[in-house]
Amino acid sequence: MFDIGVNLTSKKFLQDRSKVVQRARAVGVTGMVIIGSTLLDSRQAIVLAKEDVDYFFCTIGVHPHYAHTWSQAVLVELHKLREEPSVVAIGECGLDFHRSFSTEKEQIYAFQSQIELAVEFCLPIFLHCRNAHKCFMSILKPWLPQLQAVLLHCFTGTQAELESYLEYDISIGITGWVCDEQRGRELRKLISLIPAKRLLIETDAPWLLPKSLDPMPTSRRNEPCFLPHIINTIAVLRGEDMTELAKTTTLNARKFFHII
Ligand SMILES: [Zn+2]
């Protein structure tokens, strides 16, 4: 099992990060991608990844929430960070018009710049899109032929949105959102429409604690050790064998991020 999206630099993991990783290893998580959401965060992700170069990989980039921090200086720094062997993708970047912590203009600018960066570096791109599908696709589409590999992480959209991603061979990241019978109702119906080769699985920990965990952790914090629970839920919804699905999605992750 491979967790393609963990916010391991989060303050929520400050006290017990090594235990969190230990627990993930104990349940069979064989590797993870640490998400960079700001420049500082990307630097921290690289530092953490050095603790075990065969287990941790990371993305570098600026999340749409922090698009207001994007600048020429950030771009210069990202150029330097790219040299680090643990860096496997640009992102998390994209658009989030649901919670506009940065203006739409700032988000669009930072998104475009990071797409250009992914093309320049020949790296996969790790994308976030919420309540912005139309604008998101209109920016992304012209670049698709030049982008090496594209991942829409934490997909929670509509069938039409899913179909438009699949039409362009965009890989789809599924989180524990799928374990929520209410909020995830739409996603649960769509999960079988994703071709196996396009499916990637992530916890997005510490966020998005799977609603169906039993018992629920008292901390209410999500952890990569809950990845098997998410995979199991997806396997049941797709009518597939969990072990096979774990194998397939691990291979997908390694192939997508070029991790041998
Ligand atoms: Zn996201």
UniProtKB/TrEMBL annotation:
Alphabetized InterPro entries for the sequence:
DNase_TatD-rel_CS (IPR018228), Metal_Hydrolase (IPR032466), TatD-like (IPR001130), TatD-type_Hydrolase (IPR050891)
Q: Where does a divalent metal cation 1 bind?
A: 92, 204
Q: Which Gene3D superfamilies match?
A: Metal-dependent hydrolases
Question: Which keywords does this Swiss-Prot/TrEMBL entry list?
Answer: Cytoplasm, Exonuclease, Hydrolase, Magnesium, Metal-binding, Nuclease
One GO MF annotation is: metal ion binding
**Which superkingdom does the taxonomy of this entry point to?**
Bacteria
User: What does the entry list as the binding residues for a divalent metal cation 2?
Assistant: 128, 153
Q: What is its EC number?
A: 3.1.11.-, 3.1.13.-
List, alphabetically, the Pfam families matched: TatD_DNase (PF01026)
Q: What is this protein called?
A: 3'-5' ssDNA/RNA exonuclease TatD
Q: Which gene encodes it?
A: tatD
